[in-house]
Amino acid sequence: MSLVSNTFILFVLAAVVLYYLVPARFQWVVLLCFSYLYYVSGNVKYLFFILWSTIIVYSFGRLLEHMHETGADPKALKRTVALGLILNLGMLGVVKYTNFVVDSLNALLPVSIPGIAVLFPLGISFYTFQTSGYLLDVYWKRTKAEHNLLHFALFVSFFPQLLQGPIGKYDKLAPQFFTPHRPEGKRMLRALQRILYGLAKKMIIADWAGVFVDAIWDNPEYYTGVVIFGLVLYGIQLYADFSGAIDVVIGIGELFGITMDENFKQPYLATSISDFWKRWHITLGQWMKNYVFYPATLSDWMKNFTRWAKKVFGKKMGRVMPIALADLIVFFLVGVWHGADWTFIVYGLMNGAIMAFSQLMTDPYKKWKKALHIKGTEPAWHMFQIVRTYILVQLCWFFDRAANMDVSLTMIKNMFTHFDASQILEIAAGSGGTAFVPQALAIIAVGTIIMIAIGLLRERGIDIREKIAALPLPVGVAIYLLLFCLIGFVGCTAAPKGFIYAQF
Prior knowledge:
This protein is an all-alpha fold.
């Protein structure tokens, strides 16, 4: 059930109406029922996987809490949480990566191992990470274990965030699920505004950009220098698609009185790759920081590595190298999380390598800046950092978008060949065909400029959505209606597409 389908709109409407009609103490039951109904609407077989994750993590959470209360041996606690994580994340590994491992072994070794037919459940990458984070929080005593299985099931399955994220934390979401909520006009209008803004980003900007991106990236042997155009458009498409989906998800959550974590903060205004990942898919970055980066840097083996590095490379470098290594580990996992293909692993490692290199070059950077009389507060330097980061991010997209490594390398090679603008005009733009290309490009350009303007204002502390929400009700409603009409009038006329991250 796509987030942009009429069926989904009716589904959400029915859920909201029933949610506020039932007694407040049963509101969470409505959310749970609709969440499971939404999940099985894709395929009833998906139910096994989400129930597995729910029951396994719930059981191990209760067990860990009991072990804490009875003063269990730390080693026993560690083995218990490790087993719980293996059973939970192992399911994700089997489903998502079995055939990737098989294909890789067949390519590397003189063997012919048959693949297996595996059902890939919707949203499995999101809810397994969310539940694994909960289990580690219980292990570290950051949160108490949930004793009600159905309460925990709602935390795992809450339907607005199930397929797109954001990856939520139990101590932030759970109290909201079980607090009575009443329909509030202002909050509902703000939620509707955010949903419409997200749909506009998706159906106008992302889908029109996707027409050109798909044409160029699906025909790597044909398109020459215009692949750089396809790369830039992919960056626009991915941001408008994913951030648009998050706007829709957060807006739907607000309809029920549930506030979810923000997942984007003007990522293309980042001044470094590290800063980019604090702004892009924020909850994934926080998950990796809390459950991979910090544990890795504080682990015994990393302490041993630090001592060795200090002896071999000196104290300064010895302090930096463990952080660089932890960055590589984190972004290897980020790549693997994105998909079962070498392109995603290279994508993750590229990001990790850039961050690791930046860590290793901290002192030389300071010396160069001092030699060039750069204080770091100059507007020109700030702009240089943004442009440099944007270029690095775009180069990484070569591996995020390509179907395989051969396509990635072909596209990189083609980027340096003759730029033939007429190739762009040959791409059929929706129902208008090639004749509509100029209009489609104009729609993308105007929409992107508006997104950039809104982002720049937010960076300066001015939230346009807040300003609109503060307007008199008739004016605000008129703006919402205008946005709704724009989606209908200038929205993409090509075949409808689902959200990119819904496949995760």
